[in-house]
Amino acid sequence: MKAALVLETGKVFIGESYGATGEAVGEVVFNTGMTGYQEVLTDPSYAGQMVCMTYPLIGNYGINSQDDQSKKAQVQGFIVKEAGRHPSHWQMEKNLSRTLAQFGVVGIKGIDTRALTRIIREHGVLRGVITTQIEHLEEWIPRLTKWISPTDVVAKVSTPEIYTLPAISGARTESESYHVVVMDFGIKKNILQAMQESGFKLTVVPHTASAEQILERNPDGVFLSNGPGDPKAVAEGIETIRSLIDKRPIFGICLGHQLLSLALGGDTYKMKFGHRGGNQPVQDLQSKRVTITSQNHGYAIAEASLEQTPLYVTHRNLNDQSVEGVKHRDFPVFSVQYHPEAGPGPSESLYLFEEFTDLMQKRRAQDAT
Fold first, then answer.
1. Is 339 a residue of the active site?
2. Is 254 tagged catalytic?
3. What structural domains and CATH numbers belong to the chain?
4. Which of 8, 254, 275, 297 is catalytic?
Protein backbone atom coordinates (compact mmCIF):
# COMPACT_ATOMS: atom_id res chain seq x y z
CA MET A 1 0.00 0.00 0.00
CA LYS A 2 1.23 3.47 -0.88
CA ALA A 3 1.77 6.07 1.81
CA ALA A 4 2.80 9.73 1.79
CA LEU A 5 4.67 12.07 4.10
CA VAL A 6 3.55 15.69 3.68
CA LEU A 7 5.48 18.54 5.31
CA GLU A 8 4.16 22.00 6.11
CA THR A 9 6.65 23.40 3.57
CA GLY A 10 4.68 21.64 0.83
CA LYS A 11 7.26 18.93 0.23
CA VAL A 12 5.72 15.49 -0.35
CA PHE A 13 7.47 12.10 -0.11
CA ILE A 14 5.74 9.05 -1.57
CA GLY A 15 6.66 5.63 -0.19
CA GLU A 16 5.09 2.45 1.13
CA SER A 17 2.95 1.97 4.21
CA TYR A 18 4.85 0.48 7.15
CA GLY A 19 3.09 -0.55 10.34
CA ALA A 20 -0.44 0.73 10.94
CA THR A 21 -2.55 2.34 8.23
CA GLY A 22 -4.38 5.63 8.53
CA GLU A 23 -2.85 8.99 9.27
CA ALA A 24 -0.71 10.60 11.97
CA VAL A 25 0.20 14.24 12.51
CA GLY A 26 3.17 15.46 14.54
CA GLU A 27 6.53 17.16 14.58
CA VAL A 28 8.99 15.48 12.23
CA VAL A 29 12.45 14.99 13.79
CA PHE A 30 15.45 12.85 12.91
CA ASN A 31 17.58 10.41 14.93
CA THR A 32 21.14 9.59 13.88
CA GLY A 33 21.47 6.28 15.73
CA MET A 34 22.75 3.29 13.76
CA THR A 35 21.10 0.95 16.28
CA GLY A 36 18.53 1.34 19.03
CA TYR A 37 15.37 1.78 16.98
CA GLN A 38 13.37 -0.17 19.56
CA GLU A 39 14.54 2.16 22.32
CA VAL A 40 13.59 5.13 20.14
CA LEU A 41 10.10 3.76 19.51
CA THR A 42 9.37 3.22 23.20
CA ASP A 43 11.14 6.27 24.69
CA PRO A 44 8.49 8.54 26.28
CA SER A 45 10.59 11.59 25.32
CA TYR A 46 9.43 11.00 21.73
CA ALA A 47 5.73 11.20 22.59
CA GLY A 48 3.89 13.14 19.91
CA GLN A 49 6.78 13.16 17.42
CA MET A 50 7.34 11.43 14.10
CA VAL A 51 10.89 10.10 13.92
CA CYS A 52 12.98 9.78 10.79
CA MET A 53 15.87 7.33 11.21
CA THR A 54 18.89 8.59 9.24
CA TYR A 55 20.58 5.18 9.19
CA PRO A 56 19.27 3.56 5.98
CA LEU A 57 18.52 0.00 7.19
CA ILE A 58 16.15 -0.31 10.15
CA GLY A 59 14.54 -3.38 11.70
CA ASN A 60 17.26 -5.87 10.81
CA TYR A 61 17.47 -7.39 14.31
CA GLY A 62 13.77 -7.36 15.08
CA ILE A 63 12.07 -6.56 18.38
CA ASN A 64 12.44 -8.20 21.80
CA SER A 65 10.69 -7.73 25.12
CA GLN A 66 13.78 -6.56 27.04
CA ASP A 67 14.77 -3.38 25.23
CA ASP A 68 11.47 -1.53 25.59
CA GLN A 69 11.83 1.76 27.49
CA SER A 70 8.12 1.90 28.36
CA LYS A 71 5.07 -0.30 28.01
CA LYS A 72 4.16 0.82 24.50
CA ALA A 73 5.41 2.61 21.41
CA GLN A 74 5.46 6.35 22.10
CA VAL A 75 6.26 7.86 18.70
CA GLN A 76 3.50 9.38 16.61
CA GLY A 77 4.94 8.08 13.36
CA PHE A 78 8.03 6.26 12.07
CA ILE A 79 10.01 7.00 8.91
CA VAL A 80 12.67 4.70 7.41
CA LYS A 81 14.57 4.33 4.15
CA GLU A 82 14.73 0.53 4.04
CA ALA A 83 13.02 -1.91 6.38
CA GLY A 84 14.86 -5.14 7.11
CA ARG A 85 13.10 -7.88 5.16
CA HIS A 86 14.56 -10.82 7.06
CA PRO A 87 15.36 -9.67 10.60
CA SER A 88 17.51 -12.04 12.63
CA HIS A 89 18.75 -12.05 16.22
CA TRP A 90 18.80 -14.66 18.96
CA GLN A 91 16.60 -12.47 21.19
CA MET A 92 14.14 -11.50 18.45
CA GLU A 93 10.46 -12.15 19.20
CA LYS A 94 8.70 -10.23 16.40
CA ASN A 95 9.48 -7.88 13.55
CA LEU A 96 9.30 -4.10 13.58
CA SER A 97 6.40 -3.72 11.16
CA ARG A 98 4.17 -5.99 13.23
CA THR A 99 5.10 -4.06 16.37
CA LEU A 100 4.20 -0.73 14.78
CA ALA A 101 0.85 -2.11 13.65
CA GLN A 102 0.19 -3.59 17.09
CA PHE A 103 0.60 -0.19 18.74
CA GLY A 104 -1.18 1.74 16.01
CA VAL A 105 1.91 3.62 14.84
CA VAL A 106 1.64 4.81 11.25
CA GLY A 107 4.89 4.46 9.35
CA ILE A 108 6.36 4.98 5.92
CA LYS A 109 9.31 3.29 4.23
CA GLY A 110 11.12 3.66 0.93
CA ILE A 111 11.59 7.44 0.96
CA ASP A 112 14.86 9.38 0.76
CA THR A 113 15.53 9.92 4.47
CA ARG A 114 18.76 11.81 3.67
CA ALA A 115 16.79 14.41 1.70
CA LEU A 116 14.24 14.66 4.52
CA THR A 117 17.01 15.16 7.08
CA ARG A 118 18.54 17.94 4.97
CA ILE A 119 15.17 19.70 4.85
CA ILE A 120 14.83 19.52 8.64
CA ARG A 121 18.38 20.79 9.12
CA GLU A 122 17.61 23.72 6.82
CA HIS A 123 14.14 24.65 8.05
CA GLY A 124 14.18 23.22 11.56
CA VAL A 125 11.66 20.78 13.06
CA LEU A 126 8.60 20.67 10.80
CA ARG A 127 4.97 19.71 11.22
CA GLY A 128 3.97 16.83 9.02
CA VAL A 129 1.51 14.03 8.35
CA ILE A 130 1.98 10.42 7.33
CA THR A 131 -1.10 9.12 5.56
CA THR A 132 -2.18 6.10 3.55
CA GLN A 133 -4.89 8.21 1.90
CA ILE A 134 -2.75 9.71 -0.86
CA GLU A 135 -5.43 11.53 -2.86
CA HIS A 136 -5.61 15.33 -2.57
CA LEU A 137 -2.45 15.61 -0.50
CA GLU A 138 -2.24 19.34 -1.18
CA GLU A 139 -5.23 19.81 1.14
CA TRP A 140 -2.98 18.93 4.07
CA ILE A 141 -0.75 22.00 3.71
CA PRO A 142 -3.08 24.62 5.25
CA ARG A 143 -4.11 22.14 7.94
CA LEU A 144 -0.52 21.53 8.94
CA THR A 145 0.35 25.22 9.17
CA LYS A 146 -2.50 25.66 11.67
CA TRP A 147 -1.72 22.51 13.68
CA ILE A 148 -0.41 23.19 17.20
CA SER A 149 1.66 20.68 19.16
CA PRO A 150 -0.13 19.43 22.30
CA THR A 151 1.24 20.81 25.57
CA ASP A 152 0.06 18.04 27.91
CA VAL A 153 2.47 15.34 26.70
CA VAL A 154 4.15 14.85 30.09
CA ALA A 155 0.78 14.07 31.68
CA LYS A 156 0.28 11.33 29.10
CA VAL A 157 3.55 9.52 29.84
CA SER A 158 4.08 10.08 33.58
CA THR A 159 3.08 7.33 35.99
CA PRO A 160 -0.45 7.80 37.38
CA GLU A 161 0.43 5.99 40.61
CA ILE A 162 3.34 5.83 43.02
CA TYR A 163 5.41 2.64 42.88
CA THR A 164 8.66 1.38 44.37
CA LEU A 165 11.66 -0.51 43.02
CA PRO A 166 14.37 -2.19 45.14
CA ALA A 167 18.09 -1.76 44.77
CA ILE A 168 19.46 -4.61 42.66
CA SER A 169 20.87 -7.32 44.89
CA GLY A 170 24.63 -7.13 45.27
CA ALA A 171 24.90 -3.49 44.24
CA ARG A 172 25.28 -2.33 47.85
CA THR A 173 24.49 -3.62 51.32
CA GLU A 174 21.24 -2.50 52.91
CA SER A 175 23.03 0.09 55.06
CA GLU A 176 24.87 1.45 52.02
CA SER A 177 21.82 1.79 49.80
CA TYR A 178 20.12 5.14 49.25
CA HIS A 179 16.44 5.94 48.94
CA VAL A 180 15.73 8.15 45.91
CA VAL A 181 12.38 9.67 44.98
CA VAL A 182 12.07 9.82 41.19
CA MET A 183 9.90 12.54 39.69
CA ASP A 184 8.55 10.82 36.59
CA PHE A 185 8.18 13.20 33.65
CA GLY A 186 8.38 10.28 31.20
CA ILE A 187 11.20 8.13 32.50
CA LYS A 188 12.99 5.42 30.51
CA LYS A 189 13.33 1.93 31.92
CA ASN A 190 17.10 1.98 31.45
CA ILE A 191 17.46 4.98 33.78
CA LEU A 192 15.55 3.18 36.52
CA GLN A 193 17.71 0.11 36.04
CA ALA A 194 20.93 2.12 36.12
CA MET A 195 19.91 3.68 39.44
CA GLN A 196 18.94 0.30 40.89
CA GLU A 197 22.34 -1.03 39.87
CA SER A 198 23.91 1.98 41.59
CA GLY A 199 22.35 0.80 44.84
CA PHE A 200 19.33 3.10 44.93
CA LYS A 201 15.97 2.08 46.34
CA LEU A 202 13.44 3.98 44.24
CA THR A 203 10.06 5.53 44.87
CA VAL A 204 8.64 6.75 41.57
CA VAL A 205 6.04 9.51 41.85
CA PRO A 206 3.85 11.31 39.27
CA HIS A 207 4.99 14.59 37.77
CA THR A 208 2.32 16.37 39.80
CA ALA A 209 3.73 15.28 43.18
CA SER A 210 4.26 18.17 45.58
CA ALA A 211 7.41 18.87 47.57
CA GLU A 212 5.54 17.90 50.74
CA GLN A 213 4.52 14.53 49.29
CA ILE A 214 8.12 13.85 48.29
CA LEU A 215 9.71 14.93 51.57
CA GLU A 216 7.28 12.94 53.70
CA ARG A 217 8.89 9.81 52.25
CA ASN A 218 12.19 10.97 53.73
CA PRO A 219 14.38 10.26 50.69
CA ASP A 220 18.16 10.61 50.60
CA GLY A 221 17.87 12.34 47.24
CA VAL A 222 15.52 13.39 44.46
CA PHE A 223 15.92 12.49 40.78
CA LEU A 224 14.34 14.52 37.94
CA SER A 225 13.68 12.34 34.91
CA ASN A 226 13.68 12.79 31.16
CA GLY A 227 10.44 13.44 29.31
CA PRO A 228 8.82 14.99 26.23
CA GLY A 229 7.74 18.43 25.17
CA ASP A 230 8.34 22.04 26.14
CA PRO A 231 9.75 22.27 29.68
CA LYS A 232 7.92 25.53 30.29
CA ALA A 233 4.63 23.62 30.05
CA VAL A 234 5.49 21.57 33.17
CA ALA A 235 4.49 24.29 35.64
CA GLU A 236 3.72 22.03 38.62
CA GLY A 237 7.04 20.23 38.30
CA ILE A 238 8.97 23.50 38.16
CA GLU A 239 7.30 24.74 41.34
CA THR A 240 7.97 21.46 43.16
CA ILE A 241 11.65 21.50 42.18
CA ARG A 242 11.99 25.09 43.36
CA SER A 243 10.70 24.05 46.79
CA LEU A 244 13.15 21.13 47.03
CA ILE A 245 16.40 22.92 46.15
CA ASP A 246 17.73 23.31 49.70
CA LYS A 247 16.03 20.20 51.11
CA ARG A 248 17.74 17.22 49.44
CA PRO A 249 20.49 16.41 46.90
CA ILE A 250 18.98 16.62 43.40
CA PHE A 251 20.10 15.08 40.10
CA GLY A 252 18.32 15.79 36.81
CA ILE A 253 18.60 14.32 33.31
CA CYS A 254 17.32 15.75 30.01
CA LEU A 255 13.91 17.36 30.67
CA GLY A 256 14.75 17.27 34.38
CA HIS A 257 17.90 19.27 33.57
CA GLN A 258 15.84 21.94 31.82
CA LEU A 259 13.22 22.05 34.58
CA LEU A 260 15.92 22.55 37.19
CA SER A 261 17.23 25.64 35.42
CA LEU A 262 13.72 27.03 34.97
CA ALA A 263 13.03 26.50 38.67
CA LEU A 264 16.08 28.60 39.55
CA GLY A 265 15.34 31.49 37.22
CA GLY A 266 16.99 30.33 34.00
CA ASP A 267 15.39 30.13 30.58
CA THR A 268 15.08 27.54 27.80
CA TYR A 269 14.68 27.77 24.04
CA LYS A 270 13.57 25.47 21.24
CA MET A 271 16.51 24.25 19.19
CA LYS A 272 16.40 24.29 15.40
CA PHE A 273 16.48 20.51 15.05
CA GLY A 274 17.66 19.26 18.44
CA HIS A 275 20.05 16.49 19.43
CA ARG A 276 18.77 12.97 18.82
CA GLY A 277 21.20 10.09 18.55
CA GLY A 278 24.16 8.39 20.19
CA ASN A 279 27.05 10.42 18.83
CA GLN A 280 27.06 13.79 20.61
CA PRO A 281 30.50 14.83 22.01
CA VAL A 282 30.31 16.47 25.44
CA GLN A 283 33.17 17.95 27.45
CA ASP A 284 33.32 18.04 31.24
CA LEU A 285 34.68 21.56 31.75
CA GLN A 286 36.40 20.70 35.02
CA SER A 287 38.24 17.53 34.00
CA LYS A 288 38.40 18.48 30.28
CA ARG A 289 37.37 14.91 29.54
CA VAL A 290 35.26 14.35 26.42
CA THR A 291 32.61 11.64 26.28
CA ILE A 292 30.38 10.48 23.44
CA THR A 293 26.81 10.72 24.66
CA SER A 294 23.29 9.63 23.79
CA GLN A 295 20.75 12.44 23.59
CA ASN A 296 17.12 13.07 22.76
CA HIS A 297 15.92 16.62 23.19
CA GLY A 298 14.55 19.54 21.21
CA TYR A 299 14.94 22.21 23.90
CA ALA A 300 18.05 23.53 25.64
CA ILE A 301 19.09 25.92 28.40
CA ALA A 302 19.82 29.49 27.33
CA GLU A 303 23.29 30.00 28.75
CA ALA A 304 23.02 33.77 29.09
CA SER A 305 19.99 33.31 31.36
CA LEU A 306 22.11 31.49 33.95
CA GLU A 307 24.09 34.62 34.84
CA GLN A 308 21.43 35.73 37.31
CA THR A 309 20.98 32.27 38.84
CA PRO A 310 23.01 30.21 41.35
CA LEU A 311 23.84 27.72 38.58
CA TYR A 312 27.05 27.46 36.56
CA VAL A 313 27.87 25.45 33.44
CA THR A 314 29.76 22.17 33.96
CA HIS A 315 29.44 20.44 30.56
CA ARG A 316 29.34 21.71 27.01
CA ASN A 317 28.42 20.19 23.64
CA LEU A 318 31.41 20.33 21.32
CA ASN A 319 29.31 20.40 18.15
CA ASP A 320 27.29 23.54 18.87
CA GLN A 321 28.60 24.73 22.29
CA SER A 322 25.17 24.31 23.93
CA VAL A 323 24.85 23.77 27.68
CA GLU A 324 25.05 20.08 28.63
CA GLY A 325 25.37 20.28 32.41
CA VAL A 326 24.93 22.67 35.35
CA LYS A 327 25.60 22.71 39.10
CA HIS A 328 24.33 24.79 41.99
CA ARG A 329 26.93 27.00 43.66
CA ASP A 330 25.66 26.40 47.20
CA PHE A 331 23.58 23.22 47.33
CA PRO A 332 24.14 19.59 46.21
CA VAL A 333 22.14 20.02 43.04
CA PHE A 334 23.24 19.23 39.49
CA SER A 335 21.94 18.05 36.12
CA VAL A 336 23.00 17.00 32.63
CA GLN A 337 21.27 17.25 29.28
CA TYR A 338 22.41 13.87 27.99
CA HIS A 339 21.63 10.27 29.01
CA PRO A 340 24.47 8.70 31.03
CA GLU A 341 22.62 5.39 31.30
CA ALA A 342 22.43 4.90 27.52
CA GLY A 343 26.17 4.39 27.28
CA PRO A 344 27.32 4.76 23.67
CA GLY A 345 30.76 5.19 25.23
CA PRO A 346 29.71 2.56 26.52
CA SER A 347 29.91 3.32 30.28
CA GLU A 348 32.06 6.43 30.54
CA SER A 349 29.23 8.64 31.85
CA LEU A 350 28.08 6.40 34.70
CA TYR A 351 30.30 8.40 37.06
CA LEU A 352 27.39 10.85 37.32
CA PHE A 353 25.41 8.31 39.35
CA GLU A 354 28.47 7.91 41.60
CA GLU A 355 28.57 11.68 42.03
CA PHE A 356 24.92 11.62 43.08
CA THR A 357 25.75 8.85 45.54
CA ASP A 358 28.57 10.93 47.03
CA LEU A 359 26.23 13.89 47.54
CA MET A 360 23.68 11.70 49.34
CA GLN A 361 26.43 10.13 51.44
CA LYS A 362 27.66 13.55 52.57
CA ARG A 363 24.10 14.61 53.36
CA ARG A 364 23.55 11.46 55.44
CA ALA A 365 26.80 12.06 57.34
CA GLN A 366 25.78 15.65 58.08
CA ASP A 367 22.41 14.57 59.40
CA ALA A 368 24.11 12.03 61.67
CA THR A 369 26.29 14.64 63.38
1. yes
2. yes
3. 2-149 (3.50.30.20), 154-368 (3.40.50.880)
4. 254
